[in-house]
Design goal:
- This protein is an all-beta fold.
- It has one domain: Sandwich (Jelly Rolls).
- Strand 5 and strand 6 form a beta hairpin.
Length: about 90
């Protein structure tokens, strides 16, 4: 089941530092990011064995998750919000 988690962030006068490893509940094997987009929908598919973590680094986005029985929208509007997606999502 998809869930939002808050990533630990350290802040001081120099800025913010968010560390991802050891906060994501699975090993990180691949990292990619998307930018320069319009309002088009992306994704629209799932992976049968892959667990994913989605973070919006700038601005905001809505991730719609449909696991076949429940449809949910998740607002990612801060870089310390992380959406965990399980294979069934």
């Amino acid at each position: 089941m998809a869930q939002l988690i808050n990533l630990e962030t350290h802040s001081d006068e120099r800025g913010n530092l968010t560390v991802i490893e050891n906060q994501i509940p699975f090993p990180i094997k691949r990292i990619f990011y998307i930018y320069g987009v319009d309002d088009s929908a992306r994704g629209g598919h799932r992976y049968r064995t892959t667990r994913q973590a989605a973070i919006c680094l700038h601005g905001s986005c809505i991730v719609t998750n449909n696991d076949g029985t429940k449809k949910e929208n998740f607002l990612l509007d801060h870089p310390k919000k992380c959406l965990i997606l399980e294979p069934e999502d």
